[in-house]
Every structure is written in structure tokens, then in C-alpha cells.
Amino acid sequence: MKVVDLINNSPEGARPTVLVSATAVGYYGTSETQVFDESSPSGNDYLAEVCREWEATAVKVNKDVRLVLIRNGVVLGKEGGALAKMIPVFMMFAGGPLGSGRQWFSWIHLDDIVSLIYEALSNPSYKGVINGTAPNPVRLAEMCEHMGNVLGRPSWLPVPDFALKAVFGEGASVVLEGQRVVPAKAKELGFSFKYSYVKEALKAILL
């Protein structure tokens, strides 16, 4: 991570006081039953390894720099990401659960992740790992059902595994297997989520 080298090589008076590094909930691996918070160990799959290596580089930053590692969930916004891929499918009346639909979906509204990053930059109480996820993860089938209701479209046609792998590549494991991640640290710090429930978030984005 070149930014860490730049910070460490900067003169003491010119060095920033805080570094916020975005990583991902892929760090935890996947599970249908386990609830992951910031104290949970890393998983063993490809995405977990990528996240571990990314974070290992970030922690090499000068000890005088306050480091915040935000493990992002799936960020929901209209202009990109997962929703941008799903909206056209629903509009063609072909939307439905991805994979089994039983897997957990750990999400966060774009407005909330922006606010969380701002707090991490400006509030010295924010340090170490913070999960960037909404307080209420949902099963993917429920998320797709809410999306269909908001768009006025059915949610009935399951998307097969091979199609997800073609669209998401290595990231398909998070969608197909899922993970239930909660923002224990953000809640402890008193962060106020604008969107705690996925139905509210989808209405704000899609209507």
C-alpha cells in the first residue's frame, strides 16, 4: 500500500494524524449460522486472505498515526455496485433470490458508509477495526423480496450459481454462501445509522 510508505516517509510535522483504510467483511469468511463482529477471527477463503494482506499492510503505518480499518459490507446505492446489476433484472420481471436465498446479506446504505468514514476521520475515539455494515443484516431472499415490492416487480425466479459466478467472479462466494456481520464497534461508539433496515434503504434509493 503506497500510501503507508508515503505517510511513514513524511517529515514528522507533515505527517497526517489519521489513516482510514477501507477493507471488507470478506475478512470473516462465510457462514450460515455464525454472527461476526469485530472480534471474530479471519476466514480461510480467497477473499479473507486478500483482506488479511490488505490490513497487514495498513497496520505498518507509523504508530503516531491513528488507524481505522473499516470492513465494508455490500454498499447499496443506485449508481453502482450490487443494486446496479440487480435493478435491470427486476425491471425485466426476472428478479428473484440469488442462489438459495437463505444466505445472509450484510449491507449498508451509501449515506451511512460515507458518514461512518467522516466520523472515523474526525472523531479520535474511532480507532482499530470497525464493521461498516447496517445493524440488521437480512437473508438474501428477504432483501430481494423487498426490492421487488419497492420496484413493483415479482421476486420469484432464482438466479443460478453459475450466473452469479460469471457476474461477481471471486466475490460470488460472499453472495452464494453469505455472512451475518454486525457493527458492534460502531454501535458502541454511538454512531447513528440513517438506515437500519434494508426496506427503508431500498425505498430511499429506488423511489
UniProtKB/TrEMBL annotation:
Every NAD-dependent epimerase/dehydratase domain range: 17-125
SUPFAM superfamilies reported for this sequence: NAD(P)-binding Rossmann-fold domains
The DUF1731 domain, residue ranges: 159-205
PANTHER family, sorted: EPIMERASE FAMILY PROTEIN SDR39U1, SUGAR NUCLEOTIDE EPIMERASE RELATED
UniProt name for this protein: DUF1731 domain-containing protein
Native source species: Rubroshorea leprosula
Lineage of the species this protein comes from: Eukaryota, Viridiplantae, Streptophyta, Embryophyta, Tracheophyta
